[in-house]
Write a structure and sequence with these properties.
Elements lengths: L14 E2 L5 E2 L7 E7 L7 H10 L5 E4 L3 E6 L1 H12 L6 E5 L11 H4 L6 H19 L14 H15 L1
Antiparallel strand pairs: 1-2, 3-5, 3-6, 4-5
């Protein structure tokens, strides 16, 4: 294994950037994505892990209680993400993660207790059934507000209603 492909768990000095890459380290060309299995997903975490390993991509995969964390070169991670979403597109969700798996600043195994951000994932997880229903039953949403009815037209409508009511 080359120096560049060193196991991410042995790296301790990453400074996260918003796009999931890490500056000031030899990992700055890698990204991390979280795969979250929503309620009602037809795939278990273990099945997801097996599927990802069967892709035989040179990425770091870590099984989690909510799905998996993927870390590696952007094109390979995104390929794995796209193929994983195909398993159950309405119940598998993807999220950025600013730290690699096992980073001691975020890993609960090294810090103890729930990691920072876990409670946010927990809150988002409660919304996923509604998101899944919306994905399964798409509806057209008009983002343009309806035009206001002119006063003269409104008066005509009211008069016609009164006329038909009598």
């Amino acid at each position: 294994m080359s120096e560049k492909d060193k196991d991410i768990d042995s790296e301790f000095c990453h400074i996260p950037m918003g796009d999931g890459t890490y500056r000031d380290s030899d990992q700055k060309d890698k990204i991390t994505r979280m795969i979250i299995l929503g309620p009602g997903c037809s795939v278990s975490s273990k099945e997801l892990l097996n599927f990802l390993h069967m892709l035989e991509l040179p990425i770091n995969i870590r099984l989690t209680c909510y799905g998996a964390n993927l870390n590696g070169y952007p094109d390979l991670v995104m390929e794995a993400v796209e193929k994983a979403r195909e398993l159950d597109p309405n119940h598998i969700f993807i999220k950025f993660r600013g730290f690699p798996p096992g980073d001691p600043r975020r890993c609960r195994a090294k810090r103890g207790g729930a990691r920072e951000g876990f409670h946010q994932i927990e809150a988002e997880y409660k919304l996923l059934p509604d998101v899944s229903v919306a994905l399964e039953n798409p509806r057209h949403v008009d983002l343009n507000p309806p035009k206001k009815v002119e006063l003269d037209e409104f008066i005509d409508i009211v008069n016609e209603y009164d006329k038909n009511k009598k």
